[in-house]
Amino acid sequence: MLVAFSISPSSSDDTGGVSEAVAAAVRVVRESGLPSETNAMFTNIEGEWDEVMAVVKRAVDVVAAVSPRVGLVLKADIRPGFTGELSAKVERVERALEQ
After folding, report:
1. Domain definitions of the chain by residue range
2. CB–CB of 72/7 below 8 Å?
3. Second CATH level (architecture) for the domain 2-98
4. Where are the alpha helices (DSSP H) in the chain?
5. What tens digit of pLDDT does each residue of 61-96 get?
6. Predicted local distance difference test score (pLDDT) of residue 16
7. What are the b/e assignments for 7-18, b being 16+ CB within 10 Å?
8. Which residue ranges does the record assign to the Thiamine-binding protein domain (predicted)?
9. What is the CA radius of gyration of the chain?
10. What is d(CA 8, CA 19) in angstroms, rounded to the nearest whole number?
């Protein structure tokens, strides 16, 4: 399964930034060892249901440790029997663009 998720703490630093809290969440994802990528809006992660959801929960937990309220946006592509889709989906679109 592929999951795209975004975590937003309700509190920020004195400049209004949330990058430290978001970095803590991204660190959890990267340390999980699951295939992942982070862009300006979401972090994408690939794996089996239980392992992906456990990583998302841990990421929420580290943000909740520094913020009294946490927002989570999550989108999942559940396609049993497929792996490597984090890059394969993009590659299929790129090939279609070349036609």
Report:
1. 2-98
2. yes
3. 2-Layer Sandwich (3.30)
4. 19-32, 49-64, 85-98
5. 999 998 889 999 999 999 999 999 999 999 999 999
6. 59
7. bbbeeeeeeeeb
8. 3-94
9. 15
10. 10
Q: What percent of the chain has pLDDT over 90?
A: 82
99, containing H or E segment: none
pLDDT in tens, 32-49: 999 999 999 999 999 999
* pTM, 2 dp: 0.88
Distance, in Å, from the CA atom of 80 to the CA atom of 58, rounded to the nearest integer, reads 24
Is the pLDDT reported for residue 10 higher than 90? Answer: no
Which H helix or E strand runs over 44?
A: strand 43-46
User: Which backbone phi and psi does 89 adopt, to 5 degrees?
Assistant: -60, -45
How many residues are listed for the chain in this entry?
99
Token pair 């927002």 in the structure block, residue: 71
Q: Are strands 2-9 and 36-38 parallel, antiparallel or unpaired?
A: unpaired
Residues 6+ apart with CB under 8 A from 19: none
